[in-house]
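User: Hey, my collaborator sent me this sequence without any context and asked if I could get a structure. I don't really work with proteins. Can you help?
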Amino acid sequence: MMIQQHWKPILFTLIALATIPAALIYTDYAISSQPEPKSSVEKETIPKVTTTVLTSGTYSSIIQAYGEVKAVDEVTLSSEISGRITWRSPHFSDGSQVEQGEILLKLDTTDYLSALANAKQLLAESELALEQEKRQQRQAMKDWQRSGIKEKASPLALRKPQLKVANARYKAAIAGFNKAKRDLKQTQITAPFNGVIIARSAAVGSFIEVGSALATLRGSDLAEITLGLSDPQWQQLPKQPEGTQVDIHSRNNTDFTWTGTIDRLSSNIDPTTRLRHVIIKVQQPLAQPEPLLSGSFVSVKIKGKSIANLFALPASALSAGGDIWLVENNLLKRHTTKPLFNHNGKIFVQRDALPEPLQLVRKSMPSYLPEMKVKAQPEEASQ
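Assistant: No problem. I've predicted the 3D structure and written it out in structure-token form, which is a compact way to encode the shape of the chain:
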């Protein structure tokens, strides 16, 4: 009985060891009997690109530049006399338009009326003294002739110096009278030209000294815009640009347009920007259907001379890096180019080394690579 119990564990161990090879053989058979997976062949995907075929031609260049509208005339109004302000025009306010000769301020006239009366009296007295001295001189000459003295009479004996003094006093009195009249006139401060009041600093009751700043007056009859042009833009200007009409557009509202003319060309290059300036003038900027205000930042377009061998490309064809993409033999080709100008959604580039006709990819994409195989889809077929 004890012997049988001893052999039972040994027997179970032997049976377990015997089943391991069988399990391995079965596993290997099961794996080898599985069907092989079907190999998948990926189909090549060729991207489609929309293209348009272009030929070069001759186009009138459009020079576009930006500038600020400024009044040609701008002065600081000041007083030439001192006095207390007694009256102010309702138009003498910030932003108000005034006309040339319009009275803006009045000063107290009391002292200036008194000064004018005194000057008038002095003028009358000096005029009387001059006439009396002339008569005395004539009498002195007669007296010398009747005296029989053969020596030459001295100027003093003939009262010539006295007459000269009387004449000088009369002229000084005239000058003093004119100054008094002018000072009285200056008690009314007027606008020297048509303009807009800016930064008023005077009020009724305030006392002003000679030279006191009263306000800034900005002219409204004429405005100008200074444009900085690069050398390539300068080369596109007409042969005689002075007087050429230009189109002016608002940067904030494209519906607002104005017309100006090229007034003059700068004779030097700006040392900071390295640009040369063209000055545009606009007549009556505030009288336009939509007033052209000083300080406005505007876009100006100038029609330049005609240039041959240009391609007119859609703006979407140019990448941020200045590249365009062409299709040649179903392969993408990259060309770096620099537009001469742009107009109405098109950019104009020189032909140079570009092929003709040009099969252009209408829209540049960041995923494009040189020599990438593509399928060109003409613009008409893609619409």
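In plain terms: The mean pLDDT is 88. You can pass these tokens on to your collaborator as they are.
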